[in-house]
Amino acid sequence: MTETALILIDVQRGFDDPEFWGPRNNPGAEANMKALLDAWQERRLPVVLVHHDSPKPGSPLRSGQPGNDFKPELDGARPDLVFGKKVNSAFLGDVDLDAWLRKRGITSIVVAGIQTNFCCETTARMGGNLGYDVTFALDATFTFDLPGVTADELYRVTAANLANQFATVKSTKDVLAELS
User: Fold this and answer.
1) What is the pLDDT of residue 140?
2) CA 110 to CA 113: how far, in whole Å?
3) For residue 82, how many C-alpha atoms fall within 13 Å in the half-sphere facing its CB?
4) pLDDT score at 1
5) 106 neighbors 46 (Cβ within 8 angstroms)
6) What region holds the Isochorismatase-like domain (predicted)?
7) What are 108's strand-pairing partners?
C-alpha cells in the first residue's frame, strides 16, 4: 500500500448519548478505530482527526461541550492534522483537507469514524470525486436508527452506495492486512 492517510471522523464523546441519538449498531466500531489508529501510528503513516463542531443549540457536539471531546480510544493519538468542521464532509472543514493531502503527495485515504451514513459516507464520496483512492473501513464506523430505518440497514446501504463507485469497502482486518 502506498502512503495512505487515515482519516478518523467525529470520534467524539457526544455520540455516547443514547437519549439524544437513539439505538446504534456495530458495538465493536471503536475497537476497530483504535486498531487502525495504532497501526497507522506504529508505521508513522499520516493520521487526520476531524471533529464535528455543531452549531445547533442543544447538540452534544457543540464546541466547548464535553461531548465535543474525542472518545478515549483516541487518547495518546499523535495526529498529523486535527481540525473541526460544521458540515458532513471533512473536505469542507476549517482546514482545506484536499490541499493538505495533495501538498504531501497523498492520493490514498482510509475513512473511518462516526456516523457511517453521514459524515463518513459524505467524506468518502467527496474523496472519490476528488480523485483519491478511498478505502472505507465499514466495521470501523457506526450509526444510529432513523425513523423507519435501522442503523444496520443504513450501514448496509452505505456500503452499497460507496462500493465500486466512490470507494472500496473493506473490513478493518483487510485494511490492516494490506499494511503488513
Assistant:
1) 99
2) 10
3) 10
4) 44
5) yes
6) 4-173
7) 4, 133
Task: Tell me the whole-structure pTM to 2 decimals.
Answer: 0.97
* Residue bearing cell 436508527: 145
Alpha helices per DSSP H over the chain: 18-21, 29-42, 97-103, 121-129, 151-162, 172-179
The residue behind cell 467524506 is: 123
What pLDDT is recorded for position 164?
82
Residue among 75, 115, 119, 73 at smallest CA distance from 97: 119
- Yes or no: say if 76 and 70 are a contact pair by the CB < 8 Å rule: no
User: Which stretches of the chain score pLDDT less than 70?
Assistant: 1-2
Q: Cα 108 vs. chain centroid, distance in angstroms?
A: 14
Residues 133 and 111: their CA atoms lie apart, in Å, by 11
User: What is the CA angle 7-49-95, rounded to 5?
Assistant: 95
Amino acid identity, residue 177? Answer: A
Phi, psi of 51 (to 5 degrees): -125, 145
Instruction: Please name the residues in contact with 20: beta carbons below 8 A apart, sequence gap of 6 or more.
Output: 14, 60
Alpha-carbon distance of 85 to 77, in angstroms, equals 19
Task: Give the separation between CA 132 and CA 134, rounded to whole angstroms.
Answer: 6
Torsion region of 22: left, alpha or beta (phi above 0 gives left; psi -120 to 50 gives alpha): left
